[in-house]
Amino acid sequence: MKNCSLSFQVLVWILATGFLQGCSSPTPSTVVLSTNRKEIAAYIETFNTDQDDYRIELRFSPDSPVSIPTEGEFPDLVISEYLSGSDTIKKFKPLDGLFFKRKIPLRDFYPGLLKLGKQENRQYLLPVSFDLPILLYDNRFPGKENELFLLNLMDIRALSKSYNKIESGKFVQMGFSPLWYGDFLLLATQLFGTAYTEDSAQVLKYNSKNLTQALDFLKEWSRDDNGGPANELQYKEKYLNTPPYRQVTLGWAHYAYSTASAFFLLPENRRLGLNFRWIGHKEKILALENILYIGILDKASNSKGAEAFITWFFQPATQKKLLDASASKFTYSFGLFSGFSALQEINEKEYPRLYPSLLGHVPPAELLEFPSPVPYRWTELKRKVLLPFLLDQLQKDKPSGTLEDRLRSWMLAKPIR
Q1: What is the pTM of this model?
Q2: What is the pLDDT of residues 320-355, one digit of tens each?
Q3: How confident is the model over 122-180, as pLDDT tens digits?
Q4: d(Cα 110, Cα 70) in Å, to the nearest integer?
């Protein structure tokens, strides 16, 4: 009898355990996300709280762009810059189904931005955020720029020249010089239509005729308005040893080059008295090339969970929630992933609410242009080839080597992946 009683007790325990397990919530499945952006931690926390089906596991990568493994364990999701090149984009799954099933609001995206994630008419990547170039100036001494929505290159040249002052044959005040900022030189060539993008070997191709025109314009600006590169560099060395915003507030320059993200990430007390204008050419504003994308790897093991995160993230209500949370939790934050959202409605409605300086200044979609996909190694290529080439062209009477020569040397020293 004792054995029968014991057997019955064991049976009851087994049934009860099974019943309780059946009634308990299933364990959320894991989605592995790889990115180099630290802002994602707060977004993951919100996603994991908002639903019970999936949990995001963060795999942080210090690389830019994020390195995509060729073997071993693969992440499900990747968020990074410079993923839209023809070779890299092949490693992702098409996302068109999210639009067909109306899970993501297709019409909310900037059309020109969305198409950068396409190949052969299929959507492999979705843009997450982007940044815009700006010129800072002291709002205590506004000039004609206050009347303009954006500053074209010719506007910048003419207005900055009007602030130049020479005493005893030397500049004691210089409004602005493109030579002070390598990134401005690069932007100026892009605004002229140089159109840097990848070639068939995933390296670089560009419009050489437009590059020449841009360089001629910049050289003329330097020579005719600022007395040449020697004067510009001497002035920079003597007066411009502080961060760009301080150069303006101290009165040593009328304009300073920056980006929207860098400006809005400054503490509020450092932005006091400063204003900004978008930089353009022929009334168009060109976004910077460091556009952030999200995609599901072709070798992802949890595509369903990855789709759930993407669907959640691109809901306007979600982005509003994330923006509000960032503004309340963090002392210094700007927008989504420190940039503008890929959703037009969010930029036009939510950003001015949180950042009053943007009230009346958010560029409408028709003014924005987005650069063509650049090579995967764009950051290194820009630092080691493009910027040294442009600075050399502006500073020297007889610059050494063409851009093609420099590209060839760089490729031999470090072959493309």
Answers
A1: 0.90
A2: 999 999 887 765 789 999 999 999 999 999 999 999
A3: 999 999 999 999 999 998 887 899 999 999 999 999 999 999 999 999 999 999 999 99
A4: 32
CA 369 to CA 112: how far, in whole Å?
Answer: 7
Strand pairing report for 133-138 and 274-281 = antiparallel
Low-confidence winner among 9-18, 45-54, 209-218, 225-234 (lowest mean pLDDT) = 9-18
pLDDT band at 415 (very low <50, low <70, confident <90, very high): low
Least confident of 80-84, 152-156, 195-199: 195-199
